[in-house]
Amino acid sequence: MPENLRDIKRRIKSVKNTQQITRAMKLVSGAKLRRAQMAVEAARPFAGRLRELVANIATHAGDKHPLLAEVQGEQKVELLVLCADRGLCGSFNSNILKGAHRFVESRDKAGEESHLNLFGRKAADYFRRREVPTLRQRTDQTGKIGVELARSLADELMDDFLQKKVDAVHVIYTEFRSAMSQTVRIERLLPIPRPTGESEIDYRFAPSPDAILGELLPRFVRNQVFQMLLESIASEHGARMTAMESATRNASEMIDHLTLRYNRARQASITSEILEIVSGAEALTS
Amino acid sequence: MASHLKLEIVTPEQLLVETEVEEVIVPAYDGLRGLLPDHEPLVTNLRVGLLSYVAEGQTYKLVVGKGILEIHENQVSVLVEEGSLPESIDFVKHKKLRQAAIEQLESPDDSTDFLQAQRQLEEAEVFLDLSFTK
Hints:
Chain A has 286 residues and is an alpha/beta fold. Chain A has helices at residues 5-61, 92-109, 121-129, 147-162, 209-285, and strands at residues 76-82, 113-119, 136-138, 168-176, 182-190, 204-206. In chain B, helix 1 runs antiparallel to helix 2 (114-130). Chain B is built from 2 helices and 10 strands, in the order E-E-E-E-E-E-E-E-E-E-H-H. Chain B has 134 residues and is an alpha+beta fold. Chains A and B meet through helix 1, strand 6 and helix 5 of A and strand 5 and strand 8 of B.
């Protein structure tokens, strides 16, 4: 069947345009990923030290600090959802959102309240469309991820927890492993999970252990949030890079395919033209 | 008897210093505190101020934000909110922070957190003062 040459040509052109865009996006997220990855790695020593310190000290100070206190049952839970502002990053957003939605539904079934604290426009859109009420939301802030943002988020969560608005705070975020592999995780942020094991170090505390914990624990929570934000942003760029890479590859395949069809169609029309000419000439000579 | 301390200074964003030192002087919450090798295990809060350490006979100085210090078995971990060399302090940033705090304190509105503003003012001033030390 002779196809319309112009149509095929037009399609090739449009796929090429799309490919140009996906290729550019891939390069951009590649660069952003590198930066985000460096930030994640640079932040690890602090987080690690802080965790050790909390583990070492918490055993000395007893259970007195409210951020450490274990609650009986989680009747009201707050869930912080770390998501992206923009799409085109594969299943990054949908994985998180599905996980968050499941979390809310399972809590609902158990007769427990859950409050959503959303980070990222995609999350806000998703739950608005499904008419799930949200406690708070922040959109268009993924560009401003830093210590300051983490602090304000964490302070909000700690306020809710300390004023007994909620019994526990969980976070759902994407853990960054590599550009190709990211895992969705749900972790309990508050109350701070009790560190296991006894510390053998006999510290002297200046001032008292409780005063130290009072400074240390909020800092620990802020840092946890900071770390999760960094992981999430690195994952987003990683997911986007991978998605754009396969989009670019698919576009290439499509172009090859269309070009083949284009050539075939062109050849067919040439052949039929020649046939016409030859038979025309034969008709004249005979 | 050990002759060195292993010093690590970290901020949330990065590992600032990791080195062997002979002596560290830190701005503890109740005043400057000197740490020498074989110090007893200690945990203390730090305030904004000047931290100095001696490595191979040379003295180095660093301005640090609030944080916490832990030492045991000659391992010193300093966890601070920020830290920079006195000569590379972000003068403009701290000037702005100071100005913002002053404005908050002078014309407070409903959202003003006095303690926070006061603290911000003090911290910015320490940084500004120290940016001129050599």
